[in-house]
């Protein structure tokens, strides 16, 4: 009988020791959980379509050094915090001068605050579904703690730039924890970029805790290069009357994986999840989302759209769980997918699990190709075939792109999408 491959012990030895002792103790505890951890295979349900793309060589276990680019050239219309290979670079960052907001590196936390944080790290995630969040917990060398005081409203978006410099093979483990006080409000933009050609692993975890009435918008833009395997997890816990809005835009790579888990624990909480993914060549992107309606009178709305070209592969698995006490819940999930090639593949699996009887829930998924009649109509009106393909494809995702509330992010996404179209559609004479 063939045994499952195990995580190499090389990944259990973090290099950095500058964290406060409570966080070092947490890291040792998480490393203990990884001993003899089997790697996902095709028989692992939530990795069924992605396990074959996971390539963890021992040289990837080495923590990438801090150095190289520092993000000085990254101009953003707001505040920014720059991380290089998972470690914050203060001199490249621009912190807001705002009494209602605290932004601190994990490495700079006093021991008492580090102890409180250690008790909460990982609390928003289901450990059975996000195996690699444990690896992040065992290997992170720094992180970002964002705390909004009750009633605080940040006037501009806060950009967190995660830059991976892969001049040699290795790995990085970015970590962010956001604590939003009652009736506070902010927009957080996470951008993942890379430089270098060596094969690297980026394993990220971001967590959000929303107190009563908090309003938080999260924008996640993944633009890393073809040398980067990216595995990310985002956990969200919401209390009474809070609102969480997520916009994820992802461009494919050798392996892209994002788990987004939202738990509605307070009555009247609302969440909205939007996602756009494009893949080409032999790229792969896998989105797994989960929304748990724990309390009554909560609303959730989810819309994800995938486009796959060439021989690429996109995956969407969305789950909505209505708990027994979550009466009068409203939940809607929609996933639409567009294949631009007969060799491309998209797998979609919407799930509804309902244990309450007074709810309104709906889910749907479609997979199709560009409408040949619409394409013929545009070409017959003098539009070039390539431009007609671009117009129809952009129309498929533009509704979600236009909803991104930060103009600079919309423009960045549009630029990358135009590059995608340039490579995917060839002008026919």
From TrEMBL:
Residues 169-396 form the SUF system FeS cluster assembly SufBD core domain. Coiled coil: none annotated. InterPro entries: Fe-S_cluster_assembly_SufBD, SUF_FeS_clus_asmbl_SufBD_core, SUF_FeS_clus_asmbl_SufBD_sf, SUF_FeS_clus_asmbl_SufD. GO terms for biological process: iron-sulfur cluster assembly. NCBIfam families: sufD (TIGR01981). PANTHER family: PROTEIN ABCI7, CHLOROPLASTIC (PTHR43575:SF1). This is Fe-S cluster assembly protein SufD. It comes from Marinobacter oulmenensis. The lineage of its organism: Bacteria, Pseudomonadati, Pseudomonadota, Gammaproteobacteria, Pseudomonadales.
């Amino acid at each position: 009988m063939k045994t499952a491959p195990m995580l190499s012990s090389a990944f259990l030895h973090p290099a950095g020791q500058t964290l406060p002792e409570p966080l070092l103790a947490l890291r040792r505890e998480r490393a203990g959980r990884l001993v003899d951890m089997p790697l996902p295979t095709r028989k692992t349900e939530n990795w069924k379509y992605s396990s074959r793309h996971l390539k963890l060589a021992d040289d990837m276990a080495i923590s990438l050094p801090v150095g190289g680019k520092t993000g000085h050239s990254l101009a953003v219309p707001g505040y920014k915090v720059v991380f290089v290979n998972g470690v914050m670079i203060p001199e490249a960052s621009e912190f807001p001068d705002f009494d209602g907001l605290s932004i601190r590196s994990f490495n700079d936390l006093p021991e008492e605050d580090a102890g409180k944080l250690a008790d909460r790290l990982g609390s928003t995630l289901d450990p059975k579904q996000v195996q690699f969040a444990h690896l992040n917990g065992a290997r992170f060398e720094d992180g970002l703690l964002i705390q909004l005081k009750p009633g605080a409203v940040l006037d501009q978006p806060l950009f967190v730039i995660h830059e991976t410099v892969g001049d040699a093979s290795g790995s990085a483990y970015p970590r962010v924890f956001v604590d939003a006080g009652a009736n506070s409000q902010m927009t957080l933009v996470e951008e993942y970029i890379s430089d270098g050609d060596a094969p690297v692993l980026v394993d990220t975890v971001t967590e959000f805790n929303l107190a009563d009435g908090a309003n938080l918008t999260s924008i996640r833009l993944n633009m890393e290069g073809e040398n980067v395997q990216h595995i990310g997890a985002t956990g969200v816990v919401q209390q009474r009357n809070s609102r969480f809005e997520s916009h994820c835009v992802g461009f494919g790579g050798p392996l892209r994986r994002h788990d987004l888990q939202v738990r509605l624990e307070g009555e009247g909480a609302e969440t909205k999840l939007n996602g756009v993914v494009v893949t080409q060549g032999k790229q792969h992107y896998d989105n797994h989302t989960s929304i748990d309606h724990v309390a009554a009178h909560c609303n959730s709305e989810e819309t994800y759209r995938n486009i796959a070209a060439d021989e690429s592969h996109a995956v969407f698995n969305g789950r909505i769980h209505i708990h027994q006490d979550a009466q009068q819940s409203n939940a809607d999930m929609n996933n639409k997918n567009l294949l631009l090639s007969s060799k491309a593949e998209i797998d979609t699996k919407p799930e509804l699990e309902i244990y309450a009887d007074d709810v309104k829930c709906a889910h749907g998924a479609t997979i199709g190709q560009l409408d040949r009649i619409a394409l013929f109509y545009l070409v017959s009106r003098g539009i070039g075939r390539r431009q007609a393909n671009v117009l129809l494809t952009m129309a498929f995702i533009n509704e979600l792109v236009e909803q991104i509330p930060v103009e600079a992010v919309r423009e960045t996404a549009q630029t990358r999408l135009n590059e995608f179209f340039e490579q995917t559609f060839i002008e026919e004479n």
